[in-house]
Amino acid sequence: MGEYLTIREVAVVVKVSAATIRSYLSHRTPKWNPFPLPDFEFGGRKGWLRETVDRWMADRPGMGYRSDRAARSLPRAE
Question: Domains, the chain, ranges and CATH?
């Protein structure tokens, strides 16, 4: 079994701040690809296997993608 990553370590892998990872967890956003729940949790400490984070990142669109704006920019049916 692999080593567990902390929130800070996950943030480095994902290239966002630790606060962003905490936000993803509290809001379960984005809804189409929510950040995975921890593989391990004990006494308030959370840990993710690298494979879990890598799988989530593989399904994630590019950095800076805003799905809320993309939906608004679709042409309207007339």
Answer: 4-72 (1.10.1660)
